[in-house]
Amino acid sequence: MPLSIRITTLAVVSLLALAAGCAPTEATTPATSPAGDGDVASSPPEEPWQRELVSKCLPVAVDWRVLHLGKHGWYVGAGVLLHEAGYALVNAHVYLVPGAGLPMVHLSDDSWRSCRVMAYSPESDLCVVKFETGPPLEPTVIADLNAPAPGQDVLVFGQPRAKLQTHAWASIRRLNADHEERMELVGGNIRKGFSGGPVFNRAGELVGVVNAIDVDEEGVAKALPVGRLRRELRYDLNDEGQYPFQLGIGLWSAREPKVIAVTGGSPAQQAGVKLDDVLVRIGDVRIGDSLHYYVALMELSSTDPVDIVVRRDGRELTLTASPAARAALDPVAPVRPGLRARIISGPQGPAFDFDSREPTLTKLVPSIGVDRITGQPAGFTVRFDGYVSVPATGEYTFAIEADQGGKVFIGGHQVAVRDALTGPQGESTPIRMKAGMHPIIVDFFWITGRKTLQVTYEGPNLPRQPIGPKALFTPYTPPAPQE
C-alpha cells in the first residue's frame, strides 16, 4: 500500500473513507470534550433506562483518531475496549488511509492515549490496537454468537464531526442486509464518524460494530453482528504462527473460553491442559472471553514459565507451561541471485494489497533499495520478493529503515515494520531459522519527500548489517534440455 495526480488520489481515498463512515477533520491536534454521560446525536428526551444504559456503556466506548500526515487533519471513528490490559477494537479503514499515522484513542476519563496496531484485517474492517494503561480497565462484555434479533433497540457510540463520546439510538431492521451477514440499523442519527462504533443491546452487551454508513438513506448504517464479529476476529487472530511464542491451545468462537483442541507435544499439553477446560487466566492476563486468549498470546514475551489457570469440574487449577518459541523455518532449495521488484505507481497505504493490482513495472534487482527505482514522480509502492540466505541455524532479527513506511516478511511471518507509529528505526520480532534459504518479502511505500530504504539482519555469528546481494535470490526454473 505530478502533484495534481497525488492530490486527486488522496481525495478519492478520502471519499471512500467518508462513504465507509470515517470522517476527516482539519484539527491539527485532538480536540477534547468533557467526559460524562456523552453527547446525544439525536434530541428526543431519553427514558430512565436509556440514561442508565448510556452510563453503563460509556466507560467501554472509545474514540479513535489517526492523523493524516499529508493533510494535517484527523480521520476519526469509534471503538470499544476489548481487554483490561489496554486493548481496543476499532475500525481498520481509518488506519489504512494512505498517509495515515499516529493513531490515538480517547477514553471516557477524557484522556488521549497513543496506541500501536497489533492486528488488522482490511476484509472485515477490524483493527486491534494496544495503548498504555494504568490500573486495569473494565472491558466490554461481548454477547454470545446469536444475540442480535430484528426489532431490538440498540445504543451506538461514535464521533461525528469529531465530537467525542456521542451516542445515538437505533433499532435492528434486519440481519442480512445486502445479502451479507451484516445487520441494518435504522431510526438513529447515525452518520459519518460512527464507523467502528460499538452497538450495545439493552443488557449492555456488545452485539455488533458499525462498518458502513448508508449514503443513500439517512440514519441507516450497516454493522457486523456479534456472531460474524467473533468469527472474523478468531480467523484473523487464531494463527499461533503469527506470534513469537505459542502455547498450542485451540478455542471456539463462542463467549466461554472452553478448550476444544490441544496440540500434541505443545506446552499446553505438557502442562496438563485438557479438552473442555475453561481458561481463567494466562500469566497476568485474565481470560473472561474466548477472544482474550489471543490477547494473552500477544502479551507473551519469553519462554519463561507462565501460569495457566483453568476451571475443571467446578474447581480452579493452576498449571505451569513454558511457552514455545516459534518453530525454526525450513530452508528452500537454491535459486539464482537477485530479487523480483514489482512497482505500482501512485501513493498507496501501509496495507496495500499487491495481489489486487497489476504492477506498473516488474524487474529483477540485485538488492533491496529504492535507488534503482526511478520515473515515479507521483509516489509508488514496491514489493521485493525472493529468498534470503542465512548461514547458521538460530534466531535472527530483521530491521527496516524507511523514510515513510515498509514491512519485512520471512516465510509469511511479519518480522519488521516501519510506519508512523514506530519511529524511523521501526520495530522487529526475532524469528528462528534453519541454515539455508527462506522466502522474504519487503514492502515499501512512498508518497512524497525523501526516499530511503534499508533492510538489515543479524543472527548467530552475524553482526547487524544490510542484507547484501550475495544473500538474496529469486525463483528460477532452468530451461528444459534441448533434444
UniProtKB/TrEMBL annotation:
Keywords: Hydrolase, Protease. Residues 27-46 are annotated as: Disordered. This is PA14 domain-containing protein. The keyword Protease applies. One of its GO terms (biological process) is proteolysis. One of its GO terms (molecular function) is peptidase activity. SMART domains: PA14, PDZ. Residues 334-471 form the PA14 domain.
